[in-house]
TrEMBL record:
<comment type="pathway">
    <text>Nucleotide-sugar biosynthesis; UDP-N-acetyl-alpha-D-glucosamine biosynthesis; UDP-N-acetyl-alpha-D-glucosamine from N-acetyl-alpha-D-glucosamine 1-phosphate: step 1/1.</text>
</comment>
<dbReference type="GO" id="GO:0019134">
    <property type="term" value="F:glucosamine-1-phosphate N-acetyltransferase activity"/>
</dbReference>
<dbReference type="InterPro" id="IPR011004">
    <property type="entry name" value="Trimer_LpxA-like_sf"/>
</dbReference>
<feature type="domain" description="MobA-like NTP transferase">
    <location>
        <begin position="6"/>
        <end position="120"/>
    </location>
</feature>
<keyword id="KW-0963">Cytoplasm</keyword>
<dbReference type="InterPro" id="IPR038009">
    <property type="entry name" value="GlmU_C_LbH"/>
</dbReference>
<protein>
    <recommendedName>
        <fullName>Bifunctional protein GlmU</fullName>
        <ecNumber>2.7.7.23</ecNumber>
        <ecNumber>2.3.1.157</ecNumber>
    </recommendedName>
</protein>
<feature type="binding site">
    <location>
        <position position="157"/>
    </location>
    <ligand>
        <name>UDP-N-acetyl-alpha-D-glucosamine</name>
    </ligand>
</feature>
<dbReference type="InterPro" id="IPR001451">
    <property type="entry name" value="Hexapep"/>
</dbReference>
<feature type="binding site">
    <location>
        <position position="426"/>
    </location>
    <ligand>
        <name>acetyl-CoA</name>
    </ligand>
</feature>
<feature type="region of interest" description="Pyrophosphorylase">
    <location>
        <begin position="1"/>
        <end position="232"/>
    </location>
</feature>
<dbReference type="InterPro" id="IPR056729">
    <property type="entry name" value="GMPPB_C"/>
</dbReference>
<feature type="binding site">
    <location>
        <position position="22"/>
    </location>
    <ligand>
        <name>UDP-N-acetyl-alpha-D-glucosamine</name>
    </ligand>
</feature>
<feature type="binding site">
    <location>
        <position position="380"/>
    </location>
    <ligand>
        <name>UDP-N-acetyl-alpha-D-glucosamine</name>
    </ligand>
</feature>
<dbReference type="GO" id="GO:0005737">
    <property type="term" value="C:cytoplasm"/>
</dbReference>
<feature type="binding site">
    <location>
        <position position="102"/>
    </location>
    <ligand>
        <name>Mg(2+)</name>
    </ligand>
</feature>
<dbReference type="GO" id="GO:0000902">
    <property type="term" value="P:cell morphogenesis"/>
</dbReference>
């Protein structure tokens, strides 16, 4: 039987106290909705329908490349009403899996088991399958009510439950699987005669019982994966669960992590052998760390590839960089997009690079800005060196050939080329090409003003 998925994402999220739709709030660097869609894609459905409402076009425009069919719910009249909006786009005899965009840790393996449990014995059998859980503290969640034979008879929402029903520990997670033909029959019969004045999707249980539908349940094995997000505290709790699990996975793979509670992955991280990660490091996008890499405390790496044996010292930020083997970065270095280092290079403290290409063994150890620059092999860049690459309109390139020594406090006004093995004297402003193998400097005479007095502060 074909499978289509409906993701409910129309809620306002009042308790987030935000101008941003709730499902756009990130968990581990990605909006919650994106995380649920990525999980849904692992099930290979024929279509994914996202029901949106609150935030309107803001939600769609924020995720223009999301591979889903957007379905607008003009009025947020409840979960049953939301599912009804997608039914015109779903053909008969199709399995329909209903998910919530604010349950971001749901696992594909759990959903796959739910779908398997939902398969009818034949094309005529009506089946409804619910994902349930047993919680010590079920506050706020719909309770599963079973009859004397242990069969599900109804789901009662928290606000409509009496004291006896509130003591029930078995809850409905909000995730279910049904056949499109049955939903077409049941949803128009929903009533909004309840405390919320909404059309609850859970009311289809009573209709299914009356229809003698086979109602099955599957218990989630992991409480965290069925937890929803209604406020920022709950989002933070799920964030920490996700981060700790990722840290534990890396630890199991042989990565040293100084403190799993102070580890932050917001993308994909691939580590070689004997990698060490200190506290408070953030990894965004796609990051690859080669064998033996050491990441010091308080570093940020975004879309970075590090070769084997590299060390990133404390408080360094690397974005969009490719670093070869045995390089030393930091502390307090910033490597921006387009930076490429060959083996055995060094970028020291308070050095910023952008679109900088270093060949083997070159180094800039302190207090420099190097942008739109190509360095040859074994170049030494002195402290305070600046490539003046911007003329107010356009960027220009600086080329520094092999073996160049640049003295401290040098300005290289691009476009300019420094020939191989040249030496530039300290404090120079270089506006013209420098010949190879020569000493080039710009002189300004030292002058002493005898008898000069410092100004005195007036009362």
């Amino acid at each position: 039987m074909n499978l289509q998925i409906i993701i409910l994402a129309a809620g306002q999220g009042k308790r987030m106290y935000s101008n941003i739709p709730k499902v756009l709030h990130p968990l581990a660097g990605k909006p919650m909705l994106v995380r649920v869609v990525e999980t849904a894609q692992q099930l290979n459905p024929d279509a994914i329908h996202v029901i949106y409402g609150h935030g309107g076009e803001q939600l769609k425009n924020s995720l223009p490349d999301l591979p889903v069919h957007w379905v607008y719910q003009a009025e947020q009249l409840g979960t049953g009403h939301a599912v009804m909006q997608a039914l015109p786009f779903i053909p008969p005899k199709t399995q329909v899996l209903v998910l919530s965009a604010d349950v971001p840790l749901i696992q594909a393996s759990t959903l796959s088991a739910l779908i398997e449990c939902s398969n009818p014995a034949n094309s005529y059998q009506s089946v409804l399958t619910l994902l349930v859980a047993h919680l010590e503290d079920p506050c706020g969640l719909g309770r599963i009510i079973r009859d004397n034979q242990g069969e599900v008879s109804i789901i009662v929402e928290e606000k409509d439950a009496n004291e006896q029903e509130k003591n029930i520990k078995e809850i409905y997670t909000g995730i279910c699987c049904a056949i499109s033909d049955d939903l077409e029959k049941w949803l128009p019969k929903l009533s909004n005669d309840n405390a919320q004045g909404e059309y609850y999707l859970t009311e289809i249980i009573a209709l299914a019982v009356a229809n003698k539908t086979s109602i099955r349940t599957l218990s989630a094995k992991d409480d965290a994966e069925i937890q929803g997000v209604n406020n920022r505290l709950q989002l933070q709790e799920l964030e920490r669960i996700w981060q700790t699990r990722k840290a534990n996975e890396l630890l199991q793979q042989g990565v040293t992590i100084a403190d799993a509670n102070r580890f932050d992955l917001r993308g994909d991280l691939v580590c070689g052998k004997d990698v060490s990660i200190d506290v408070n490091c953030v990894f965004r996008g796609k990051v690859i760390l080669g064998d033996g890499c050491i990441i010091g405390p308080n570093c940020v790496l975004a879309d970075v590839v590090l070769g084997a044996g590299c060390e990133i010292q404390a408080n360094s930020v690397l974005e969009g960089c490719v670093i070869a083997n045995d390089c030393m970065i930091g502390p307090f270095a910033r490597l921006r997009s387009g930076t490429q280092l060959a083996a055995n290079c060094k970028i020291g403290n308070f050095v910023e690079t952008k679109k900088a290409i270093f060949d083997e063994g070159s180094k800039a150890s302190h207090l420099s800005y190097l942008g739109d620059v190509v360095l040859g092999k074994e170049v030494n860049v002195g402290a305070g060196t600046i490539t003046c690459n911007y003329d107010g309109v356009n960027k220009h390139k600086t080329i520094i050939e092999d073996g160049v020594f640049i003295g401290s406090d040098t300005q290289l006004v691009a476009p300019v080329t420094v020939g191989a093995h040249a030496t530039i004297g300290a404090g120079s402003t270089i506006r013209k090409n420098v010949p190879p193998g020569e000493l080039t400097l710009t002189e300004s005479k030292q002058k002493t003003v005898y008898g000069w007095k410092r100004p005195v502060k007036k009362d």
